[in-house]
Amino acid sequence: MRNTNIAPSTRPAAARLSTESAAARLFLRPQTLRAALCRSGHFMGMIPIKLPNGRLLWDADAVERLLSGEVAK
């Protein structure tokens, strides 16, 4: 069995957005984010966290930076 030590996130849960919420903030369809992630591994530099149930959580700060015209980190 592989032992992976993953440190818990120091960010509050509110700092993450579901795919549907992130897409709404970016004025996109959720499938656009999923397709970009599948094709290139990111959406405009944003890489989500994948939960064990398969859902994705996107960084709210990165979404806001993208909306303001900055580059997502």
From TrEMBL:
The protein's name: DNA-binding protein
Native source species: Candidatus Accumulibacter adjunctus
